[in-house]
Amino acid sequence: MCEIARVFLAIAMGLTVAACTEGETGPVSTENITHEQVREFLLGHPELILDDPEIANAIERARSNRTKKLAASYRRSVIEDQTDLLNSPLTPSSGETSAEVTIIEFYDYRCAPCIASHSGLEQVRSTDSNVRIVYAQLPTFGSHSIMAARAAIAAQRQGHFEAFHAALMTTNTHPDIDSIYATAAEVGLNVEKLRADMRDPQVIQYLERVRLLAEALDVTGTPVFIVGSAILRGGTTADELHAEIARQRAQGEKMGEVSNVTS
Question: Is 251 helix (H, G, I), strand (E, B) or coil?
């Protein structure tokens, strides 16, 4: 028997007993039970919930689902308020702005789970044309991470983010300043311009805004994937991402309506 039916049957039986003790006869139909009757009955008979683990578990799941919905609503609001950031020429992204679902990846180039998740995210990018991916740098592993994040934005300025990003995410070593410059040269970047852009206050301020966005979304480490209005923490796979994308589509989520401008 489904959980809701169990609750209403139990309440109907309880109300029938209560009615009989007051001199009324005949069962109480669940169709005639009002919200106020249910509330009064449960307030007067809390043991019904305490003594039935299935009902107690159902209530706990309902509470958890409500919390998740509130968190998802909050994330939507935060992201909508940051349209200008997601619309910035400094923000690397792939996919159409009209995509059904947007994924925001918070990552660090020296983060092993981020690197391990890269192939899964790339599979999603290459197989689902209705998904937009926003790459949000969140350096958390020291000065080399900060330099790599700045270099990624500098590469975005030169129109070579994708090649630079792919090179760093498929390397077998954690990037340091020397390997960052070497990689930049290998993918065709102007290294002198890259160095200058990495020191540009606009780039530094941009990364600070990304950090504040992460903080507002309760992102404290990497990797984290905001998929529509859901949040996936830690390393992930293409299958897990596809599954969450399908859930977002089923719920009618559409978080991909922030336009992307590239320089």
Answer: coil
The CA distance from 78 to 213, in Å, is 8
Helix (H, G, I), strand (E, B) or coil at 218: coil
Q: How confident is the model at residue 47 (pLDDT cuts 50, 70, 90)?
A: confident
What is the 3-state secondary structure of 138-206? CCCCCHHHHHHHHHHHHHHHCCCHHHHHHHHHCCCCCCCHHHHHHHHHHCCCCHHHHHHHHCCHHHHHH
227, 72 Cβ separation under 8 angstroms? no
How do residues 197-236 score in pLDDT, each as one tens digit? 999 999 999 999 999 999 999 999 999 999 998 999 999 9
Task: Name residue 139's amino acid.
Answer: P
With a CB cutoff of 8 Å and minimum separation 6, the contacts of 173 are: 179
How far is the C-alpha of 249 from the C-alpha of 256, rounded, in Å?
12
The domains located in the chain, with CATH, are: 3-78 (no CATH), 80-250 (3.40.30.10)
CA distance 174 to 192: 22
